[in-house]
Amino acid sequence: MFPPKGQRGALGCRRRRLPLSTQGELRLNNSRLRRRSKQAAVAPRDDQGIPLIAKYFNTKGRYEEVNPYLRQDMLAVNRSILLPPSPQCREIHLTAIIRHGTRYPTARNVKEMQQLHSIVLNNSTGTSSRLREILSQWTMWYTEDMDGRLVQKGEEDLKHLAIRLSKLFPSLVSEEKLRGGLIRFMSSSKHRCVNSTLSFKEGLTEMWAIRDVEFGHEVNDALMRFFDQCTRFVQEVDRNQSAVIEVQKFKQGPEIMTVREKIAERLGVPSSFITHDLAEAAFLLCTYEFAVKAVNSPWCQLFDEEDAKVMEYASDLREFWKRGYGHAINSRSSCILFHDLFSRLEKAASENKLRQQVSEAVTVQIGHADTLLPLLTLLGFFKDTAPLTSTNFASQTQRSFRTSHMLPYAANFLLVLYDCGEGGIRLQPLLNEKPLTFPGLTDQQASIPLYEEVRKHYRDLLNGCDAETECQVFKTLAEV
Question: Is 100 an annotated catalytic residue?
Answer without folding.
Answer: yes
